[in-house]
Design goal:
Helix content: over 70%
Number of helices: 9
Number of domains: 2
Order of helices and strands: HHHHHHHHH
Structural class: mainly alpha
Distance between the termini: 57 Å
CATH class of the largest domain: Mainly Alpha
CATH topology of the largest domain: Tetracycline Repressor, domain 2
Oligomer: single chain
Number of strands: 0
CATH superfamily of the largest domain: Tetracycline Repressor, domain 2
Length: 204
C-alpha cells in the first residue's frame, strides 16, 4: 500500500510540474490534456485517471499554489511575534520569496483571475479562496495593530486591506512584466517595505 501511494504521489507531481509549465507558457485554453500527458511522460488515459477534466487539474494547481503561497505566509505570520508593521513587512517579503521561487504560480494565478473573472466555476472559486486567505491575513494584522495601539483606532481596516492587496498584485505584475528581473523585484519589495514602515509611523 505504501509503495502504491508513493507511486501515485510521484505521478501526480509529474503531472503537476508539466501542467504548471504548459499553462504558464501557453495558457490554460491553449493547452490540452494530451500535451500535459506528453510533457509528463504519460498517456492521456493516465492523466484522466487522476484528473477527470482539464479544469479539475487547474483547480488542483490553484489549490497547491494557495498552499505554497498565502497559506505558508499565513502560518509564518501567525508565529511572528513582532508589531503590526513588522508583520506587514514580513508579509511583503514572504510573498516576494514565493514569487521568485515559483514564477509559474504567479502567472497561472493572474491568468486564471482574468479568464474566469465572470464565471462561477471551481477555478474561480479557488481564486476567490486564495484572496479570501490574503484578506484574512491582512485583516488580522491590522485589527491586532489597532487593538494593541500600534495603529490608529480610526483606521478603516477594510479599505486598507483592499489597498494593500492592490499594491501586492500591482507589484507582482510589474515584476513579471520586467521579465522577472531580480533587480526590479528587489526594488519593488524594498519600496513596499518602506511604504509599510512610513504607514506605521503615520498611523501610530
Amino acid at each position: 500500500m505504501a509503495k502504491k501511494k508513493q507511486d501515485k504521489e510521484a505521478s501526480v507531481e509529474k503531472i503537476e510540474r508539466a501542467a504548471l509549465m504548459l499553462f504558464a507558457r501557453y495558457g490554460y485554453t491553449e493547452t490540452s490534456l494530451e500535451q500535459v500527458a506528453d510533457e509528463a511522460g504519460f498517456t492521456k488515459g493516465a492523466v484522466y485517471y487522476y484528473f477527470k477534466t482539464k479544469e479539475a487539474l487547474l483547480v488542483y494547481l490553484l489549490d497547491r499554489i494557495r498552499e505554497r503561497s498565502i497559506l505558508r505566509t499565513q502560518d509564518y505570520l501567525r508565529a511572528h511575534t513582532g508589531t503590526a508593521v513588522d508583520k506587514l513587512v514580513a508579509f511583503v517579503q514572504q510573498q516576494a520569496i514565493w514569487a521568485a521561487k515559483n514564477p509559474d504560480d504567479l502567472v497561472i494565478l493572474i491568468l486564471t483571475s482574468l479568464q474566469f473573472r465572470e464565471t462561477d466555476t471551481p477555478a474561480r472559486q479557488s481564486v476567490r479562496a486564495y484572496y479570501g486567505v490574503m484578506t484574512e491575513v491582512l485583516t488580522e494584522i491590522f485589527s491586532e495593530g489597532v487593538k494593541k495601539g500600534e495603529l490608529s483606532r480610526t483606521l478603516d481596516i477594510e479599505t486598507t486591506v483592499l489597498a494593500n492587496i492592490a499594491r501586492h498584485d500591482g507589484n507582482m505584475l510589474l515584476w513579471y512584466r520586467s521579465g522577472r528581473d531580480p533587480e526590479v523585484g528587489r526594488k519593488l519589495t524594498q519600496s513596499s517595505c518602506n511604504a509599510v514602515r512610513r504607514f506605521g509611523v503615520e498611523l501610530a
